[in-house]
Amino acid sequence: MLGGDYNGRFIIDSLTGAVSITQVLDREETQNFTLTLQAQDSGPAPLSSTTQLHLVLLDENDNVPLFSRESYHASISEGLSAGVEVLHLSAFDPDEGPNGVVTYSLTENSSNGAFSVEPFTGVVRTTRSLDREQTP
């Protein structure tokens, strides 16, 4: 017998005692489960005992990082030197551990080499002096 209110997410085979899931579990929804298991004999006055099974769901890389904004806009003056901070990107991934670590990069040819982004901080910087007459 299986105890606990888990909306039918678990079943137990009464002959083998194997506990199985009946639906996909999501660590971001529920990280831990404690199931109460009961064993009962078939005597004329059945005897039983219980134990608990503690389950910890391990993370799967099942979430995409999401930026805190749908788009970013910045205005900068021409003639700034290389290395000037333009803006700071921010994204979050609800996965756990390495699966939730976000790194940033520019897509190929997206800045014509005028900007760089620091992979772990999300800071976008100029890589050279900018000229509005060449590229607005």
UniProtKB/TrEMBL annotation:
CDD domains: Cadherin_repeat
Cellular location(s): Membrane
Family annotation (SUPFAM superfamilies): Cadherin-like (SSF49313)
GO CC terms: cell-cell junction; plasma membrane
Alphabetized Gene3D superfamilies for the sequence: Cadherins
Presence of keyword Amino-acid biosynthesis: no
Key words, A-Z: Calcium, Cell adhesion, Membrane, Repeat, Signal, Transmembrane, Transmembrane helix
GO terms of biological process kind: anatomical structure morphogenesis; homophilic cell adhesion via plasma membrane adhesion molecules
Listed GO MF terms: calcium ion binding
Record carries keyword rRNA-binding: no
Entry membrane topology: Single-pass membrane protein
Sequence ranges assigned to domain Cadherin in this UniProt record: 10-67, 68-134
Record-linked Pfam families: Cadherin
Primary localization class, coarse: membrane
Record PANTHER family: DESMOGLEIN FAMILY MEMBER, NEURAL-CADHERIN
Protein name: Dachsous 2
Annotated organism of origin: Nothobranchius korthausae
